[in-house]
């Protein structure tokens, strides 16, 4: 197998492994390695009994999802049904579908809880556009499958991107009716095990309390407060409760902290936008409902804060978005364990609800790696030597041989110099008038004061090794060049005179294109198979 064929095979295997991880195995990581139900690692007091399946029998498993906010014509201001919008919608929906079926469902939750913002421009979509977005939502999260309907209970909470704030609800009541027809009431409560969940339409709590929009929400809160509390409660609010500016959100926060911003309509003074519920309304909700924990969304990033209430400190978990297109590089979901048996007298109320934040694959980083790998593939194929790495190996061997000869030559030269320095030559004249040099060993070595050769009367000092070393060095270097040239196959590397640079460039581009075709032929079908495997209904 030739060198460039080996390179093509190696790159093909790298691309195959990359696609398998990026499009499939990365979504199994939360279930296999990075996440688990919180009651599995809780203390023995919170985990007294275990059933045969390996999890505590006294907890109900709840998966919490926030802000899918599926993209539509209002998201990027692209024309409806345009190719660019369809492309973005497909890959955004595909990520959330993979996250749900490969990362969340393997945990086998018994309850799925959505914290609102299912759509991006929900209040501004026509009925047909809204129904189309609803179909996409059900397809992404399997809400139209028998598996979900028969084995999992699903609860919904409205968000500002679904029904708008108070001012929009007042002017477009049909938006609210459309939502309630599909998802049910905006304010309600339900039991999960021995824990009571209270869902509140947070978009209306800061509205004008004399209007019907806000009064319905506060009447519901008053009814909950007047009832005797028999179980620990969890408050569900799409909009987070009030927090001071620059409040620390904990280690899981990935983006800068967003401070309170609230805007009112200039005509009816109703709320048109807010980041958090006001401080007064937040305190009322905490004191009237008396929850042990608060779950919220809206912020698109993770945040954990503690609130003070009359009943003591209350922890609020703001979940990040499950979508990779909503400004969060680290999409997430939450696993919540709700106690299914009454608390003992020695148990704390917080032990009734255990939570764990789980992170999904960083889709943006996966696509960046695809781009980097593609660039590296192009450069590798273009710059790979025509004769492979054998040419480089021969050059390296010649260099090693040259260094070895130089070292041996230096040793021989040193030896000859030492022999010449420790002897002298005496001139003797023969009877026929000829001169002879007789070598005599000195009893004391001659000390040289300089390196300039000299001939003194009666003595002669030789300096021939210097000239010899120069000749040997030239011979070694020429030998190295000759050997390197002789290793090159003349069939593979024709003489430069017969081959122009343009032909070399064209040949490399043709070779690169041919290798790319081979790599694509092996990996594009795999990529497409993984796309459609996850997209079709299961």
UniProtKB/TrEMBL annotation:
Residues covered by the Calcineurin-like phosphoesterase domain:
62-301
Where does it primarily localize? membrane
What are the TM regions of this chain, as residue ranges? Answer: 366-385, 513-532
Membrane topology designation: Multi-pass membrane protein
In terms of superkingdom, the source organism counts as Eukaryota
Q: Which GO terms describe its molecular function?
A: hydrolase activity
Q: Is Disulfide bond found in the keyword set?
A: no
Show the coiled coil region(s).
none
Biological process (GO) annotations held by this record are: GPI anchor biosynthetic process
Short name of any one Pfam family annotated for the protein: Metallophos
The GO cellular component terms are: endoplasmic reticulum; membrane
| Family matches, as InterPro entries | Calcineurin-like_PHP, Metallo-depent_PP-like, PGAP5/Cdc1/Ted1
Q: What's in the keyword line of the UniProt record? A: Membrane, Transmembrane, Transmembrane helix
Q: Where is the protein found, in the record's own terms?
A: Membrane
Would the keyword Repressor turn up in this protein's UniProt record?
no
Name recorded for this polypeptide: Calcineurin-like phosphoesterase domain-containing protein
Q: Which organism is it from?
A: Gossypium raimondii
């Amino acid at each position: 197998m030739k060198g460039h064929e080996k390179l093509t095979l190696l790159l093909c295997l790298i691309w195959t492994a990359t696609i398998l991880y990026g499009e499939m195995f990365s979504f199994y990581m939360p279930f296999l390695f990075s996440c688990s139900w919180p009651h599995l690692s809780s203390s023995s007091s919170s985990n007294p009994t275990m059933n045969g399946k390996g999890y505590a029998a006294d907890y109900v498993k709840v998966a919490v999802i926030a802000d899918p906010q599926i993209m539509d014509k209002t998201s990027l201001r692209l024309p409806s049904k345009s190719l660019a919008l369809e492309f973005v919608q497909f890959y955004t929906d595909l990520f959330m579908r993979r996250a749900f079926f490969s990362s969340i469902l393997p945990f086998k939750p018994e309850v799925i809880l959505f914290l609102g913002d299912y759509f991006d421009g929900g209040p501004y979509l026509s009925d047909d556009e809204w129904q189309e977005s609803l179909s996409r939502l059900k397809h992404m999260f399997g809400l139209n499958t028998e598996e979900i309907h028969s084995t999992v209970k699903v609860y919904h909470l409205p968000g500002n991107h679904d029904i708008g704030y108070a001012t929009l609800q007042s002017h477009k009541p049909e938006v609210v009716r459309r939502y309630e027809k599909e998802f049910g009431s905006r304010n309600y409560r339900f039991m999960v095990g021995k824990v009571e969940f209270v869902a509140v339409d947070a978009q209306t709590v800061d509205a004008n309390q004399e209007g019907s929009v806000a009064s319905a929400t506060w009447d519901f809160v008053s009814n909950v407060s007047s009832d005797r509390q028999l179980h620990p409660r969890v408050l569900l609010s799409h909009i987070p409760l009030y927090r001071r500016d620059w409040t620390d959100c904990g280690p899981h926060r990935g983006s800068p902290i967003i401070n309170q911003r609230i805007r009112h309509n200039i005509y009816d003074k109703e709320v048109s936008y807010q980041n958090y519920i006001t401080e007064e309304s937040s305190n009322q909700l905490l004191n009237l409902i008396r929850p042990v924990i608060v779950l919220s969304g809206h912020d698109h990033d993770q945040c954990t804060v503690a609130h003070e209430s009359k009943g003591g400190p209350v922890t609020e978990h703001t979940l990040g978005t499950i979508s990779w297109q909503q400004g969060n590089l680290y999409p997430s979901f939450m696993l919540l364990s709700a106690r299914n048996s009454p608390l003992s007298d020695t148990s704390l109320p917080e032990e009734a609800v255990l939570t764990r934040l789980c992170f999904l694959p960083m889709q943006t980083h996966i696509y960046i790696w695809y781009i980097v790998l593609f660039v590296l593939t192009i450069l590798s194929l273009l710059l790979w030597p025509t004769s492979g790495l054998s040419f480089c190996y021969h050059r390296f061997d010649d260099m090693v041989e040259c260094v070895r000869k130089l070292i041996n030559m230096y040793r021989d030269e040193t030896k000859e110099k030492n022999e010449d320095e420790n002897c002298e030559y005496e001139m003797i004249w023969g009877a026929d008038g000829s001169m002879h040099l007789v070598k005599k060993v000195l009893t004391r070595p001659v000390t040289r004061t300089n390196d300039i050769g000299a001939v003194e009367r009666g003595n002669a000092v030789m300096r021939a090794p210097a000239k010899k070393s120069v000749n040997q060095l030239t011979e070694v270097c020429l030998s190295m060049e000759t050997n390197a040239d002789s290793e090159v196959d003349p069939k593979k590397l024709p003489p430069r005179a017969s081959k122009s640079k343009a032909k070399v460039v064209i040949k490399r581009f043709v070779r690169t294109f041919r290798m790319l075709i081979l790599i694509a032929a092996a990996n594009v079908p795999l990529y497409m198979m993984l796309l459609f495997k996850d997209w079709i209904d299961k």
